[in-house]
Amino acid sequence: MTIQPAAATSVAAKMTRIGTKDAVIRTVESGDFSLAVETWKTAFGFTDEERWKLFAFEVSDFAVGVFIDDYPHALATVIRFDANFNGRLIKCGGIAGVACSPPMRKKGLVRAVLRECLSRLHAEEVEISTLWPFSYPFYEKMGYAVTDLQYEVTENIDAIANVGDSANFKPVRLDDYETLMPLHRRWTKEFNLSLERNSDRWQRQLARPERQFVLYQHKDGYMIWNLQDPKERTLEVAEWVYLTEEAFYDGLALIKNCGQLAFDKARWVMPNLDPLLKLGVSFPPAKIGVRHGMMSRVVNSEAFFTNTGLKDYRLEITDPLAVSGPQKSTGKRQCGPGEVIQIASGFMKPADPRLQPLYEAAARAQTFSIEQY
After folding, report:
1. Model confidence pLDDT, tens digit, residues 303-357
2. Rounded to whole angstroms, how far apart are CA atoms 210 and 224?
3. Residue 333 buriedness (CB in 10 A; 0-12 / 13-18 / 19+)
4. What are residue 218's DSSP bridge partners?
5. 76 within 8 A of 95, measured Cβ to Cβ
6. Pairing outcome for strands 316-317 and 334-335
7. Do 168 and 130 meet the contact criterion of CB atoms below 8 Å apart?
8. Which domains does the chain have, with CATH numbers?
9. Across-strand partners of 146?
């Protein structure tokens, strides 16, 4: 595979001081890869170098590192998305691959590399940034906030209600994934902060070597099952799009049909429980867990309030990274960059009555994203 230099290489390197060390913050180039992969492998415990090359130089739009003595001790990458927000599409910088070498952890390097990534996105007038964190409290200190909750359902297949018709689904070859793309696009339009997925991302999602996917398509949805190494004979429904209750119930029938041989249980994720609760309580009851989803924050506040149609409700942002606003409040109507997303999307009602107009202006589409990157 020919490795191309990461994007945004024209951005000048920055000198800084980390404790007693001189450091350079700059774009990660192809020549840095042999050292960068050591930091990534140590942080994530994943050692496939070819996949790290793909991630760093093809999946990601650019990567940034904090270099001390020419060694990349901290890394982060940015993947550009379009995000649905209150009926509009806005630009989103997805943060991924955040890592720090063991000797330099807890020294502020991750904070520095995140600030650089967000500063570059701010210069590009990108409205928001999102990530799937390893630690929610850690990223709250970086200005991010939880912006959706997801319901994980695990149910005995024998206990699933006898509803729907599995014949309304048809198998789809992995190479024919494009037939699912319009359904995915319709699904994302129903939710705030749901990220669009282009053809390249579809190919990468379905080619993950640690999973073995099969696809089923419905006229109003689709299901992606992972058959690789099922734990406790549990079928993992990796992705389930249903645009109607009929598509959900037909999907339950499809799951129920597979329960005779390989699986005893099934696990899937839902944005809300309404279609499941309408069926009443199963026996044994399904296990339902609520988990935090994606975290988000404002990057360029001017672009955010203008391009979301919320310009009349603009407020001052106090940002711990000093990207979308000052680090300290000036006493005006203000809140954090993640809190703005929570309020403006209708995800969280503000305690401060001065922020109520922004909350009332939200389009009230539920926040939910099935895209993990």
Report:
1. 999 999 999 999 999 999 999 999 887 666 679 999 999 999 999 999 889 899 9
2. 15
3. middle
4. 221
5. yes
6. parallel
7. no
8. 1-147+294-373 (3.40.630.30), 150-292 (3.40.630.30)
9. 295
